[in-house]
Amino acid sequence: MAPSRGPEPLARALHTTLENHKGPVHVARYARGTAKYVLTGGQDRTVRLWNPTLGTEIKAYSAHGYEVLSISVAHDNTKFISSGGDRSVFLWDVTTGNTLRRISAHLAKINVVEFNADATVVASGSYDSTVKLWDLRSPNRQPIQALEEARDSVQALYVGSSRIMSGSVDGHVRTYDLRKGELRTDYIGHPVTSVVPTQDESTYLVMTLDGHVRLMDAFTGKLLNDFSGHTHASYRCRACFGHGEASIVAGDENGAVWAWDLLDAKPLQPNPPPKVHHKVITWTEHHPAEAGELITASADGTVKVWRYPASGS
Amino acid sequence: MSAGTARLKRRLDEQGINYTSKKAAENYCLIGTPLPPLEKKDANEFVPIWKQDVRDEKGRRRLHGAFTGGFSAGYFNTVGSKEGWTPSTFVSSRADRAKQKASRPEDYMDEEDLAELRENQIMAGVKQQQEQQQGVFGVTQPELAQGDPEQDSIAASIQRALMPPLEDSPGVRLLKKMGWRPGQGVGPRVTWRTRKIQDLLAAGKSIDGVDVDALDDDEEAKRHMYPPRDTVVPRFSMKSDSYGLGYTSAPGLVESLGQKRPEVKGPTLAAGFGLGALNEAEDDDIDVYDSASRADRTYMPYDSTRDADDGANFSRNKSNHKAVTTTQQKFSNGIIVLSGFVLSPEPVQKDQWFPIPEVPSGWKPDPRRVWQNDLNVEKSAASTSTREASSRRQKLTADERGAILGEEPLPSTRSVFDYLSKEDRERIEHAAAGLLPSAPESTPPPVEAPSAPSSLPYTAPHIAVAALKGFMPFANDLAKRERYVAYLRSQSTPDHPELLPPKLPGQTSEAYHRELSDYSKSAAIFKPVSGAMANRFTTAAVVDSGPTAIEGLHQPTHAPETAPVSQQEGEREKEAPRREEEEVQSSKAHAARTGMYGALTREIAPWQPSRLLCKRFGVKDPNPDITTDAPMPGASRNQPQSQSTAGGDTWKPEEALAEADLQTATGSTSAGPSSATTGRRDLENIGLGEDESQGRDTLTYVRPSMDIFKAIFASDDEDEDENENGGGEPEEGRPEDPPREMAMADVIAAPAHSRVHDTTTYEPKTVDRPPAGSETVDIATFKPVFVPRAERRTQKSKDNDKDKKDGRGKDNKKKVKSIVSFEDDEEGAALVIAPQAEKDRARKKKKRRKEDKRVTNVEAAGGDEDAEMWVEKAPPQVVTSFVDAPPAADEGAQLKAALAPPPVSSSSTQVQRTEGPPRGRKRAIDFL
């Protein structure tokens, strides 16, 4: 849908609830490609693979010794990586459920991991305030490079085709431009919990702990839009773009899913949104292709799949 | 021993003797202890740790390694067969089922296990006995009686009947032999009444409120005596807290509300990867989102209030609510309590609020009135204070006690207050000023009569002197301070009582006395501490004083109050630039706060992605020159690209060569690449990215003309040829003439490159140089002239012929500046050195020959004169030999050469050892 016609309303009809996790769910990611599957990771030290349409759990991956805080799926859906409290990055084979590799060199829990485009490099951002880049092609135990600029825990990462963006609790978003060989540090001023750029990487969305989601210009570092209204003060929440990047979706700490118009920064109806989770929504992710699908993971132990009422049935 | 055995074995092996045969092992020893047989292992023989194995008392191997069965696994060690357990043959038990006995665990145990079992049984036996003893002496019965109130007596008796009879402990057996029966306590028989009391006590009740006599209702029972009850063994519960004995902590908030105290327990960790015994359930592992829905919640991060109206509320709370909310509660003023809320039985303690004082109409602030008031208060306080003082007489300080007892006051030099910062002192003073008038800290010494002027407060002179030097209190009351100082002066000079501050007009003698005693106390307080203590304090750098709220309407006090205010302002002024600095520093933060994102909040810095990262991302390296590759562990980051053969401080031959080559071959007078731009080149900075001159010498290297190499290296071959031809030509120095001169030019040029060099080394050269052959060499423009090889050869052969003819070359003597001169021989001057020189030369020659070969190889490989074909390592080595050779010509240089051996010593020393001496010897023979 063209953004000019305004954003589509958010999918707010509950399609299924994925609730096999015991304890909070920290992360829920769509698979790549057509994104027919969902991977979730939670406090119960497992990563679970779901079919969001049917709401069934396909597989549970358990090797973590601590909570799973982050998951990233490889471009070909054959592998995924997860990380968490046990200070190591696990590379999993999706079908067998084995860990192919366990990379442990961080000093503290790893908040976020990301693959690069062709799953040759893994970036891991940790509480030890470093981002480390790992080569998956070689069994080298040392990282390719460690990005140690952050002064506090790294909470968000984005690995693009030629840039790596990291969001840290020190209130900075750092863009490591490989092509230019420069580091652009944008000071947001509040602990950053998520950094999600647009597909063209010209803007990025920053969610900070002051209860604001900001759309920043990646070239100049200027503020393009500011979205607020939700409650966000303590936990890692994630804001993402809605379908066609026409809207902003974010879950808040009350368990409500907020949506804003990208252009006029007004919250979409209903405003305020209803409370759909009992606890803080830890992860919000919009379906990469489908217009009306959205998943939210919450600390109440459930992952909810939202669709339009029509498409749901 | 073992070494000897091994040697003997080897020798026997060599001789072809089979020492394992019986014959060899036969013992012929008649006297003494025979040596242990070769085959049998000596018990004390050293066995490396990997050859050692663990055997049990029967000599069986017990450990087989993790992959070969582990500890005591079955490979024909412990169990029936080589295959493992002995397969038992099937025997039909159909016929004799009755005989079939169940296999016990003991059937599968080996003797070790059985031994262990037996040990355990012994242990268990002892334990059982202990238990029995406890049981007999009264634990069981009262427990059965009191522990389970629900269990009726029939059940108890049944239980007792069903319970297996306990075996008697030795003590019980002894008692039984003495006529004691279980159930009867130990001791003489007691009356019914006593027994009742005992029963009560055993049941844990107190006998205070019970009418014991009322219990004896049975007349018949009173007539008999009864065995006493078993003594209750007191059971002590382990003390698990750190409170004092008998202390029961007050119930916490949760318990006082009638709820169970939540048991804090850590999450149970799954056995995950990488989790060892050291991994604890840390705070990280506690669910941060955890809420009250769990009984064992530890803290409420966010939903304590919000979830109250939530649909999914917690059952526990609900039940509580229901119980209460059924009855409508009302506040005291009649308002009905909202549904879902409970009125707390305890009234909330209100914050203390002070009413705003009513300002009378037409009131004007007049501080003087207040001060007047203060003075009045002070007066009245003064009158009351003595009364208070007398009531507090028993509160004596150590000093006062000491004064009463007539102790010598402790010597002191400095006061604690000297170490306090100014602000702190002021604060204390304020506090003191507020306190002293109304309530003096302690009483004046009681020995003094309050009104007697003769017994005015006394301060020891040394204290007074010290206090005079130390900190001065009463900074906010200058008049008072003056009086204080006067008092101190008077006390420091006890002979002059007239120095005492006079009584103020209108001041009562009591007030005066009190004032003076205040001074005396102040002097005691503010006197400096003794030296030992003094070192332990440092002045505070920063005073951390938060904002202090003064309750009530602000009332202006005495005039000196203005001083601190101005000081505060001063502080503020001081802080202002600091704050400004911070502001400048955090302009970024400011911009972010005001939403001015953009250039202000953005910092751009160069960043070098790793080359591998660029490769993985398919991006061209933005700065290909810089490498940020993570260094391999163990490898140093600074990989020297060119091998420097000499030490950091020593003269570097490759530089000299490069320069000399540049100057000789191209005639350029520009300074050498390394000497001019970078002061030092050594292993630390060579080959680094910052080194601008890196690789420049390879790029700018101009290959010297072929003649140089020929001149240097070809000559040796010729020499070699001559030697091999058996010419016995001792004069090998001569053909090296051109290179030697070259080298000399280098060496002499070296000091010009600010290389420290011992010039004395070269003196002999210049001295030795025959005036005819050597026209003065201009170093700057010096250019060796080379004679073509063929020509030279012919010339040399001619010389050789000449030499052969007359045995010694007189021409050579003139040309060659060599110590190996036969002139010297004749004169007998340098005979001592000569052979060494010969040796040395031989050494060098050998080396040179080697390098010749290398260089010619290089030349062969890079036949063209392309600079890049030059292996960078080659020049230094060439040069070392090149440089080494000429110094052989003189004594000093030779010494130097000996002191600083060439770095390529591994080969050269080899040469020295093997080739040098024989040749030298041969030479000597030739010479003599």
Describe the structure.
Chain B: Residues 636-647 have a biased composition (Polar residues). Chain B: Residues 842-851 have a biased composition (Basic residues). The complex is a heterodimer of chains A (313) and B (928). Chain A has 313 residues and is mainly beta. Chain A has one helix at residues 309-312, and strands at residues 13-18, 25-30, 38-42, 46-51, 56-62, 68-73, 79-84, 89-93, 99-103, 110-115, 121-126, 131-135, 145-147, 154-159, 163-168, 172-177, 182-187, 192-197, 203-208, 212-217, 223-228, 239-241, 247-251, 257-261, 281-286, 293-298, 303-307. In chain A, the strands form 7 sheets. In chain A, strands 1-27-26-25 form a 4-stranded antiparallel β-sheet. In chain A, a hairpin with a 5-residue loop joins β23 and β24. Chain A starts with 12 loop residues before the first strand and ends with a helix. The mean pLDDT of chain A is 88. Chain B is an all-alpha fold and 928 residues long. Among the domains of chain B are: 168-231, no CATH class; 376-534, no CATH class; 653-699, no CATH class; 706-927, no CATH class. Chain B has 34 helices and 3 strands. Chain B has helices spanning 2-15, 22-25, 111-147, 153-162, 170-177, 192-202, 212-215, 219-222, 253-256, 315-325, 367-391, 398-405, 422-435, 461-469, 478-492, 509-526, 531-534, 562-585, 587-593, 611-617, 653-666, 673-677, 696-699, 706-724, 737-752, 763-768, 789-806, 810-815, 822-827, 833-861, 874-884, 891-899, 905-914, 916-927; strands at residues 190-191, 225-226, 602-606. Chain B has a two-stranded antiparallel sheet. About 34% of the residues of chain B have low confidence. Classes of the chains: A mainly beta (313), B mainly alpha (928). Chains A and B meet through β17 of A and α19, β3 and α20 of B. β17 (182-187) of chain A pairs antiparallel with β3 of chain B, so a sheet runs across the interface.
